[in-house]
Specification:
two-stranded antiparallel sheet; mainly alpha
């Protein structure tokens, strides 16, 4: 056999072997890299990677796949993120100021009755003789008067006997339909402005049943 023929036969055999190898590679399935039994693809950005396989982690993975939760952890605010940016307008917090009335010294020349007051109450408060007060205003004892009635206060005289009806300083529990003026009449010689000042309120501040008032 000639040398040329041997070369041709060798080339033919090499080609046959190469062709067979290509067919075997194309038809053979690619085997997956073996992993641990029950292993699953870990989600990106979930902090429970180390606890993967637990019921909590599986629930988080399912929720992330359905778009119910974000895989990106929520940023926790800190002292830097709470600082307003430059140029931001901040509204200052203001505390309301209650203007407490002050007692006018001396005896007024006139006085307008308030809800819950009556002439004898005013006579005790301003140390006035009640009969002189009634006479100065054309009133009789026991006569019903209405709030808003302007009384003329006598410039002289004094209340006969003790002016106080109840001892004080003390506390008082507000009753139904009470006003600061009515509470002042309950004690006799206490001015309503003094009660308001002792409780840090104004004369127009509503008082409620059961409220405890300081009586000076």
């Amino acid at each position: 056999m000639s040398k040329k023929v041997i070369i041709i036969i060798a080339l033919a055999m090499a080609a046959t072997l190469l062709f067979a190898a290509c067919e075997r590679s194309a038809g053979q399935p690619i085997l997956a890299t073996p992993t641990e039994e029950g292993a699953k693809t870990l989600p990106t950005g979930i902090s429970l990677v180390q606890a993967w396989g637990t019921s909590t982690a599986v629930a988080l993975q399912t929720a992330a796949a359905q778009g119910l939760v974000s895989p990106t952890p929520t940023e926790t605010p800190n002292s830097l993120t709470l600082v307003p940016p430059p140029g931001a307008v901040t509204t200052p917090v203001t505390t309301p100021v209650i203007v407490v009335p002050t007692l006018t010294p001396g005896r007024p020349s006139t006085y307008s009755l308030q809800q819950g007051e009556f002439p004898y109450c005013i006579a005790r408060r301003f140390n006035v003789d009640p009969n002189a007060l009634l006479a100065a205003n054309g009133l009789t004892s026991g006569q019903i008067v209405q709030p808003g009635l302007l009384l003329t206060i006598p410039a002289s005289g004094s209340f006969p006997g003790a002016r106080a009806l109840s001892p004080h300083p003390a506390t008082y529990t507000v009753q139904v339909d009470d006003t600061i003026y009515k509470v002042a009449c309950h004690f006799g010689d206490v001015d309503p402005t003094s009660i308001a000042a002792a409780n840090g309120i104004t004369l127009t501040t509503p008082i409620t049943t059961g409220q405890i008032l300081n009586i000076p």
